[in-house]
């Protein structure tokens, strides 16, 4: 692997199964790592308040620095803080929306929740999307973010053209769309819930190079579905 690449793990809905996730991540990191980042793009907390408290109080750590998106339903929304916070040295809650700049130079855009006409702790509105896009529209020479994390599956992701993130990861549904695989285009990955009955893929690993190191942009790529 090139020294300027970052190794990333992503998981779908955890639903409070933190110990199982920790064991799986430890095994993968030992066997195939080390990995630099772990993103949880689905519903992180579950119905068990005691299990959730083990994360909130910092009792559970992961072997890979872990970043968590916000809630997708009202039943778990009370467990999430209103703002970004570090639960422990290895687990960070990102908050509802924003752009994370990693130590390796990656730009990670994220949008939590489900779409609605009004915004609350587990829903995002058009206004939230507009706020997220402010840096995109104002930054001179902006090439696009490296990774886009969303809780929702974007509609008709395969139909759009130009200006994409390198990778988009979404929770709630297991699917993979790879467009123009020989080029620096968007890889869209939808991840299923952890330990699901259908044995669908809930964990995905990839290497990524930050866009500022790529000195050209292909014309045959897909438009970021969240900007449509």
What does this structure look like?
This is CWF19-like protein 1 homolog (inferred by orthology to a C. elegans protein). One of its GO terms (molecular function) is RNA lariat debranching enzyme activator activity. With 228 residues, this protein is an alpha/beta fold. It has a single domain (5-227), classed as Purple Acid Phosphatase, chain A, domain 2, CATH 3.60.21.10. It is built from 4 helices and 14 strands. Strand 2, helix 2 (49-56) and strand 3 (66-69) form a beta-alpha-beta unit. It starts with a strand and ends in a 19-residue tail after the last strand.
Key terms:
single chain, 228 residues, alpha/beta, Purple Acid Phosphatase, chain A, domain 2, six-stranded mixed sheet, 18% helix, 26% strand
Tell me the overall shape: globular
Write down the overall mean pLDDT: 80
How many distinct folded domains? 1
Radius of gyration: 17 Å
Share of residues in strands: 25-35%
Q: Count of helical segments?
A: 4
Task: Tell me the helix content.
Answer: 10-25%
Low-pLDDT parts are: 156-163, 172-184, 213-222
At the fourth level of CATH, the homologous superfamily is Metallo-dependent phosphatases
The total count of strands amounts to 14
The ordered H/E elements are EHEHEHEEEEEEHEEEEE
Q: Class by helix and strand content?
A: alpha/beta
Protein name: CWF19-like protein 1 homolog (inferred by orthology to a C. elegans protein)
GO molecular function, one term: RNA lariat debranching enzyme activator activity
GO biological process, one term: mRNA splicing, via spliceosome
InterPro entries: Cwf19-like (IPR040194)
């Amino acid at each position: 692997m090139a020294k300027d690449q970052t190794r990333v793990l992503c998981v779908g809905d955890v639903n409070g199964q933190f110990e199982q996730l920790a064991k799986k991540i430890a095994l993968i990191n030992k066997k195939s790592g080390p990995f630099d980042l772990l993103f949880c793009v689905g519903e992180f907390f579950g119905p068990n308040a005691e299990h959730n408290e083990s994360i909130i109080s910092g009792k559970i750590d992961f072997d890979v620095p872990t970043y968590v998106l916000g809630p997708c339903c009202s039943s778990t929304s009370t467990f999430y803080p209103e703002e970004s916070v570090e639960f422990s040295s290895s687990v960070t809650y990102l908050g509802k929306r924003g752009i994370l700049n990693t130590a390796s130079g990656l730009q990670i855009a994220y949008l939590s929740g489900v779409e609605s006409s009004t915004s609350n702790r587990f829903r995002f509105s058009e206004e939230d999307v507009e706020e997220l896009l402010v840096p995109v529209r104002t930054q001179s020479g902006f090439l696009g973010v490296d990774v886009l994390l969303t809780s929702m599956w974007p509609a008709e992701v395969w139909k759009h053209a130009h200006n994409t993130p390198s990778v988009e990861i979404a929770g709630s549904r297991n699917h993979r769309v790879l467009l123009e695989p020989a080029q620096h285009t968007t890889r869209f990955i939808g991840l299923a819930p952890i330990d699901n009955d259908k044995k669908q893929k809930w964990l995905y690993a990839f290497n990524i190079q930050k866009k500022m190191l790529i000195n050209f942009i292909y014309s045959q790529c897909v438009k970021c579905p969240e900007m449509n």
